[in-house]
Design goal:
386 residues; mainly alpha; hpI Integrase, Chain A; 3 domains; two-stranded antiparallel sheet; 59% helix; extended; disordered N terminus
């Protein structure tokens, strides 16, 4: 079987992101250059056949380390031998014990990946004797940034491109790998048309992933700095030019250092921007399915029934931007709107009280009339008695 035919992407869409880089071996995703020997094995070809480029690169990197360990522990040096060894065992728990031995001492999150990798390789190649396991919870809650914290983060970043990254992250809610993939062509149409809220239009293939980007926009905070950097030649106005020409590790280190200077140690560097974006959308009270589209969360079957008209989403995004906006003008505008809202609520409350008073007066008048009729009837009865 031809290994290259199996692992090669047949479409023109380049799946790039947070780990993208060009190195001596051709970059993170160039698995044919980095792992040529592993890709010769039919078991590996079968295992990776339907995996995404990111998963292929990640799995092969970890699998290579795993095989170095099995060579010393069970004298198995390649994928075929590993599968054959598993099938020779009388009980699948022996295989799981080996997996547990390999992951002992690792952090929970790293161990989860290694266990899933090991088990998926065996399962995809027909081994079905592994016992069920109880997965430990690894997710933990972390706060997102608030408005003041985003401003503090930006003020502690020295590079304009790093500031632009933060502004784009809080404006769009895009995940780090999508921000780092962003090219000028994805914003060219709306940016050059002078739109206030610029739609980020990725290739269709990028929206067909499990963690797809939202149908989102960049607001004036981002656009103002972006236009300035374009005029200075820092960002190239060319279709394939990257807006952020650095790798994930670079921006993470920069944000971590800025966080430390600002005293924001509890907030996740990049994902905290996405949480800020989502909390601002929450304040609008928009349709839930529309909000899911703007955030890049799957709505399941509802996606097929929810309109994806960009101008409709742009209008909703515009409503949310008064909370996303970091300018002082936005603060004043929000305070005015809150005061106007309170005035309207108080006016409605006053009208309600007036209505209650009016209802009370009306009831009192009815009682008075009833008493008058009763008194008159009593008088009539007294006259008849006489």
């Amino acid at each position: 079987m031809n290994a290259q035919a199996v692992v090669e992407e047949n479409h023109d869409f380049d799946y790039l992101g947070g780990h993208e880089g060009v190195g001596s071996q051709g970059g993170y995703y160039n698995i044919r250059s980095r792992f040529p020997k592993l890709l010769e094995f039919p078991t590996v070809q079968r295992w990776l056949r339907k995996k995404s480029p990111n998963t292929k690169a990640e799995y092969l990197l970890r699998f290579e380390k795993l095989l170095r360990w099995t060579l010393t522990d069970i004298q198995v040096s390649n994928p075929e031998e590993l599968l054959a060894w598993a099938k020779k065992q009388n009980d699948g728990t022996v295989v799981q014990d080996l997996i547990d031995e390999y992951t002992e001492g690792m952090s929970k999150s790293k161990a989860h990946v290694e266990i899933a990798l090991f088990r998926s390789f065996l399962s995809r190649n027909g081994y079905r004797d592994l016992p069920k396991i109880d997965w430990e919870r690894t997710m933990s809650f972390s706060e997102g940034y608030n408005r003041e914290q985003v401003q503090d983060l930006i003020s502690n970043l020295r590079q304009p491109l790093h500031r632009l990254y933060v502004l784009a992250g809080k404006d769009s809610g895009l995940r780090a790998n999508d921000l780092l993939y962003l090219r000028y062509r994805h914003i060219k149409k709306d940016l050059e048309a002078g739109q206030k809220f610029v739609h980020v239009e990725f290739e269709k293939e990028r929206y067909n992933r499990k963690k797809a980007p939202g149908r989102t926009f960049l607001g004036p905070n981002t656009i103002d700095l972006l236009n300035k950097l374009i005029s200075q030649g820092v960002v190239k106005a060319e279709p394939d030019a990257k807006i952020f020409p650095f790798v994930y590790r670079t921006i993470t280190n920069a944000l971590t250092l800025a966080k430390k200077r600002a005293g924001l140690t509890e907030v996740q560097p990049s994902h905290g921007l996405r949480k800020f974006y989502e909390s601002c959308l929450d304040r609008v009270g928009m349709d839930h399915n529309k909000k899911m589209q703007l955030e890049g969360h799957s709505a399941g079957v509802r996606d097929a029934y929810t309109s994806q008209h960009i101008n409709e989403l742009r209008e909703l995004y515009g409503q949310a931007y008064r909370y996303l906006d970091l300018s002082e003008k936005a603060v004043v505008s929000n305070e005015v709107q809150e005061l106007q809202k309170k005035i309207i609520e108080q006016a409605q409350h006053i009208e309600s009280l007036k209505g209650q008073v009016s209802d009370s007066d009306s009831a009192y008048q009815k009682i008075e009339k009833s008493l008058a009729r009763m008194e008159k009837r009593i008088e009539e009865l007294e006259k008849q008695k006489d």
